[in-house]
Amino acid sequence: MRKNAVILLFMVALITGATSAAPLTVTSPDGHLRLTAGIDKGRPYYTLSRDGVAILGTSHLGFALESGDLSTGMKIVSSSHDTHDDSWTTLWGEDEIIRNHYNQLSVTLQGGRPRAKMTVTFRLFDDGLGFRYEIPRQKALPHIVVTDELTEFTLPHDVPAWSIPTNRTIYYENLYHRDLLSVKDTVHTPLTIEAAPDVYLAIHQAALVDYADLNLTPRAGKDGSVTMLSALTPWQDGTKVKAGNQLCSPWRTVIVGRKPGDLITSRLMLNLNEPCTWDDTSWIQPGRYIGIWWSIHKKKHTWEQGPHHGATTENMKRYIDFAAKHGFSGVLAEGWNYGWGSGEEISFTKPYPDFDLNEVTRYARERGVFVVGHTETWGKSRLLEEQMEDAFSLYERLGIKVVKTGYVGAMLNGEELQHSQFGARHYRRVLECAARHHIMIDNHEPMMPTGLQRTLPNLMTQEGVRGQEYNAWSQDGGNPPSHTATLPFTRGLAGPMDFTPAIFDYSDEVVPGTRPKSTLAKQLAEFVVLYSPLQMAADAIESYENHPALSFIESCPTTWRKTIVPNGEIGHYVTIARQARDGSGRWFIGSLTDEISRTLTLPLTFLDTDKRYRAMIYEDGPGADYLDNPMSMSIRQQDVTAADVLTLRLARSGGVAIRLTPLP
């Protein structure tokens, strides 16, 4: 009997993989990436390599809890492998069909104080890694409060990276800088890293649900390594996550590419989010819009009521007429409601006297245009939650299909940080309420996107970026030429961004020397390069009327069948080509550069080999220069095939926008 019991225990150990000594491994489907997970002196860890070369060295895992820890004294008690391979269709996005192919390793650990269980699930894709923690219900942990997440990302060497710090802005509205990891402050993610000439990484997260935002703090090692330590955005009491009796963290993600453009075309983050389960999504419609916005930032109009009020009935009707004439889906009205003036009580249903909400929405509906509403809270998130059911019900009845939410203010309700678990819970409640009323959301002052648009596809776009408005009034002169050549490789990796491109008029500077630091052709290129399914042509309509460059924007979709990145160098230049999803076979290309003029070559090998295309090319004109001659632009056409190579000549901070249409 005793012998049989020993044999039985041995067999159970084999089946469960119960060991704390032998490391466990999983490889990517193509075999290039390899992840190892194990226990190092009681501490769980993982490593990541590509073709035998270390990408991430020993990186520890675990939690510090209010009631103990799950990071030391741990043992592996079971493990399992799995594989998954399918494809899914996006409702909108940069690619229509996304392949979801990964190999998975799940490791269950037990130990710590109190002796409790925790599972870490690793998914290895051809283009990177995702992993998350799960702490199940158990007697050892009746109530889970995380005081620190102890996740590490250890780089074998000190290498350059692009990031924005957490200590200068609460809105992610800062310029990305390239520095060595070791000299950085605590930074937001995505963190983009040049680990080697052919190794580019982006550390971020996916599926942030009821959890705190991930930040990273560097720690230099004596061996020359640099470990990036997780630094969750806290509640005001110092705790990070209040999880009840079980916890499921967001996925921690590491995209791995051989060139910078590989980071842009990765769909790893979306694959780690849950599919949408809604029965009806027909009301979700990407599109272009214009609005009463830039003229306010240029101080020609005001948000609040008065002699220069921008969002009036008369002004909105002018914008609606323009939108209907030029094929724009919607018109934004900022400053239409009470709450902008000093001492006014904020209302998301009560318009100013010179804005007839019923008449404006009726006028828009009759012309096939919808109004984009706006609910600026000034950080008073509780006020929006109290009013949103009534407000969104009203908007639904009036045909307002999109709402731009805003949270200007240091804290939500003056109590909690926007990127804390408190903020995550609020933003989710707004999205779910909006969905019940068939309303799409453009979230300003948001959490950094983590791919939730797959699960909640009414989360169309978000700000979380130093956008165009800084080119109107920033005291530092506005966004530098390198800014939009950096964003696709940094903030853009998190998801759609409401940057608001396409300014055509650089006159009437509010702050001397502050205006878009780009040519007109580059402004057109940004309409393609900076992705948003609700893309705003941001200038006043007077700047667009009768302008030949408007024809490119009129034709440019905002949701795509396929996206490729023919070339790019982070912070210097980028070329992005996108195929329209409407079945026309058209391609749209945007290419832009920093303050250095460039000549780039663009092989058209992505085109169908059996077709000819007409290329309409909007490019920097004679003598174009972002400082001295930004408006010089030429428009020409030529017929091309997949065998052709286009030469792109970009002025200083210049660009080119191209529309390729198949010929009969």
Structural features:
single chain; 664 residues; alpha+beta; 13-stranded antiparallel β-sheet; seven-stranded parallel β-sheet; 13 helices; 36 strands; disordered N terminus
Number of strands: 36
Poorly predicted residue ranges: 1-20
Please compute the radius of gyration using only Cα atoms. 26 Å
Broad structural category: alpha+beta
Give the termini separation.
Answer: 83 Å
Q: What is the overall number of helices?
A: 13
Proportion of residues in helical segments:
10-25%
- Mean pLDDT, as a whole number? 96
Strand content: 35-45%
Q: Based on CA inertia axes, which overall geometry fits? A: globular
Largest β sheet strand count, sense and barrel closure:
13 strands, antiparallel
Please give a structural write-up:
With 664 residues, this protein is of the alpha+beta class. It is 17% helix and 36% strand. Strands 5, 6, 7, 8, 9, 10, 12, 13, 15, 16, 19, 20 and 21 form a 13-stranded antiparallel sheet that branches. Helix 7 (381-398) links the parallel strand 24 and strand 25 (402-406). It starts with a helix and ends with a strand. Mean pLDDT is 96; it is low at 1-20.
